[in-house]
Design goal:
The protein is an all-alpha fold. It is 76% helix and 0% strand. It is rod-shaped, with a radius of gyration of 36 Å.
């Protein structure tokens, strides 16, 4: 067993030496860099979602309200509700 584990360690050293020095992973500033990237992505997605909502939902809703109130007669609507008996104070 002992001879076998030394053999594996020797293979590991040889592989490391043949490939040259391995670069150390960057640890300093890793969180700040990844946070900056994610914040830019979140900002772009939020602007896109806001623009989509404005044009797909908001403008359509404004148009629908404008079309409804263009021909709306509130007195006619009131008289229909009064005749139906909805209001108790106005007979």
């Amino acid at each position: 067993m002992r001879k076998h584990s030394c053999h594996l360690e020797d293979l590991g050293r040889r592989a490391a030496m043949s490939s040259g020095a391995l670069a150390k992973p960057q640890m300093r500033g890793l969180l700040a860099r990844r946070l900056r990237i994610h914040m830019v992505g979140a900002f772009i997605l939020s602007i896109g979602a806001g623009a989509y909502y404005k044009f797909a939902v908001g403008d359509q809703r404004k148009k629908a309200y404008a079309d409804f109130y263009r021909n709306y007669d509130s007195m006619k609507d009131f008289e229909e509700m009064r005749k139906a008996g909805i209001f108790q104070s106005a007979k």
